[in-house]
């Protein structure tokens, strides 16, 4: 009887780990397949892609899809604008939102609830597209680079996340710093801001992804200024022109650009655009991932 129990005790962990490994491999395959499929289509000949059957590996290798993406000279300046707005939006958004969250997290601030409620209301009520456009116009932000930075500098959702995290920090940290004579800004910069690194990394990723993928604000406020065009807006225009050209065969005759468009299809160019716009964020994510779960304030104060 003891031998049977001992044998079953050794088999159960093996069975569990085997099933768990198979299940996790299945989840990984499902997660990676869309990206690998898009990558394969982006390197596959456009006309051959229409036949289907492209899964993990290109059947007819070509770089024409990426050549069609980078053939216009404006794409490089647009990429610079996208990188600039993403970096500045992330830096200013994280810093200013954290300052505001720290202020609203202080119990001695008598207006914290009223101001917090005003920010929460902005999550439920919106004036609409046209009033927002006239507001941007009256502020003088039309055809200005600051239209990418100022309107999205503080987010109510990110504010709530950071404020909740600051409230979870030990109150003894702030009290001991005030006893030592530290001012509010010094407490914020030297104590609160470093301890908020995990939540700030998460919020920074939210802001960076949103700023990098945004194109509609360019369409509304700076579409006529080529110097303010973003990478995503240029990709959207390229995709639209490719689809319209493929729907009109007579438009294919003419210049070299149209002849190149004949070699690509909306599906192949869409895949190349997706890869070009997604790769920068994929490089940023690994540097922020380690902060998502681990908190730097653990064990800093014991009460």
From TrEMBL:
The chain crosses the membrane at residues 14-36, 117-136, 142-166, 187-212, 267-288. Keywords: Cell membrane, Membrane, Transmembrane, Transmembrane helix, Transport. InterPro entries: MetI-like (IPR000515), MetI-like_sf (IPR035906). Pfam families: BPD_transp_1. Residues 79-288 form the ABC transmembrane type-1 domain. It is found in: Cell membrane. It comes from the Bacteria. Coiled coil: none annotated. It is a multi-pass membrane protein. Belongs to the binding-protein-dependent transport system permease family. PANTHER family: ABC TRANSPORTER PERMEASE PROTEIN MG189-RELATED-RELATED, POLYGALACTURONAN_RHAMNOGALACTURONAN TRANSPORT SYSTEM PERMEASE PROTEIN YTCP. This is L-arabinose transport system permease protein AraQ. It comes from Paenibacillus auburnensis. The lineage of its organism: Bacteria, Bacillati, Bacillota, Bacilli, Bacillales. The gene is araQ_19.
């Amino acid at each position: 009887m003891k031998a049977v129990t001992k044998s079953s005790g050794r088999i159960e962990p093996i069975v569990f780990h085997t099933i768990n490994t198979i299940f996790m491999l299945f989840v990984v395959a499902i997660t990676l397949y869309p990206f690998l499929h898009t990558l394969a289509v982006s390197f596959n000949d456009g006309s051959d892609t229409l036949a289907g059957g492209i899964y993990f590996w290109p059947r007819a290798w070509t770089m024409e899809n990426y050549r069609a993406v980078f053939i216009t000279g404006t794409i490089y300046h647009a990429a610079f604008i996208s990188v600039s707005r993403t970096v500045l939006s992330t830096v200013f958004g994280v810093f200013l939102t954290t300052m505001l969250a720290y202020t609203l997290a202080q119990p001695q601030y008598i207006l914290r609830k009223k101001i917090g409620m005003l920010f929460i209301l902005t999550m439920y009520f919106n004036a609409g597209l046209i009033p927002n456009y006239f507001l941007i116009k009256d502020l003088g932000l039309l055809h200005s680079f600051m239209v990418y930075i100022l309107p999205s500098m503080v987010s109510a959702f990110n504010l709530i996340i950071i404020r909740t995290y600051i409230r979870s920090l030990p109150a003894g940290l702030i009290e001991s710093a005030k006893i030592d004579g530290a001012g509010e800004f010094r407490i914020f910069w030297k104590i609160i801001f470093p301890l908020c690194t995990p939540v700030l990394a998460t919020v920074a990723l939210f802001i960076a992804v949103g700023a990098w993928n945004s194109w509609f604000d360019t369409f509304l406020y700076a579409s006529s200024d080529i110097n303010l065009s973003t990478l995503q807006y240029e990709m959207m225009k390229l995709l639209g022109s490719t689809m319209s050209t493929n729907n009109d065969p007579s438009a294919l005759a003419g210049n070299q650009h149209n002849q190149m468009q004949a070699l690509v299809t909306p599906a192949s160019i869409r895949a190349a655009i997706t890869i070009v716009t997604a790769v920068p964020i994929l490089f940023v994510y690994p540097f922020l991932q380690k902060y998502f779960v681990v908190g730097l304030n653990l064990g800093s104060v014991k009460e």
